[in-house]
């Protein structure tokens, strides 16, 4: 499976063996592992002393697909990729030293992974996540989207779909045991209302989080406005002794 890595110059030159925090950056549906490097200036954050890892996820939502037993993207992301990165690069292995951030489909995946594996990720970033995906019923106009969701999430009303529903996960995990959540959306995008609803659920459950609405729609223009704030929040987690406060 292809993935791209950005390293601090000292690591690329072979001069730094000190373990560094790792940020996994997940792309959106219809994109690929090159998106973060091609569409944003995220490379500059490697200079802060981080390893940035951008894996390929196809249209998988980076999940283990119910209807495609061989498509086990969540296992790949949380087990195989983490192991490979640790063997190849000076990666920190503690919870605070591991973050997952995604846009659109990748944002949903970041929430799912962070909530399902709270012991592994100290920070979760989700920009424009389609948090309402498990609620979307059949539609001829969006038949292929419906079919893809059914293959990945499972049939409507099934336990498999509930296990992959981030709203259900928020209700089932302990907020104090979960990493800090950065949640963002564009003020002109169709996902704003469900993302607001998700932010309300985080607030009621007592999660440590922040919710930011920025100008723009469901695109890299808006996500590039979110990225600086997201990484500023991430630094408070990744830097030893950093403390993140609850957000609103």
Structural description of this entry:
- Helix content is 38%, strand content 15%.
- The protein is of the alpha/beta class and 248 residues long.
- It has one domain: Rossmann fold (3-Layer(aba) Sandwich), CATH 3.40.50.
- The chain has a 7-stranded mixed β-sheet, sandwiched between helices.
- The longest helix is centred in the last third of the chain and has 19 residues.
- The C terminus is likely disordered.
Quick gist of this model?
The chain has a single domain, classed as Rossmann fold (3-Layer(aba) Sandwich), CATH 3.40.50.1820.
In percent terms, what proportion of residues is strand?
Answer: 15-25%
Termini, distance in Å?
A: 38 Å
Mean pLDDT: 90
CATH architecture: 3-Layer(aba) Sandwich
InterPro entries: AB_hydrolase_fold, Esterase-like, Mycobacterial_A85_antigen
Keywords: Hydrolase
GO molecular function: hydrolase activity
Protein name: Alpha/beta hydrolase
Write the layout of secondary structure elements.
Layout: E1 3-6, H1 9-12, E2 22-26, H2 35-39, E3 51-55, H3 73-88, E4 98-103, H4 105-116, E5 123-127, H5 143-153, H6 159-163, H7 166-172, E6 180-186, H8 192-205, E7 209-214, H9 220-238
Parallel strand pairs: 2-3, 2-4, 4-5, 5-6, 6-7
Antiparallel strand pairs: 1-3
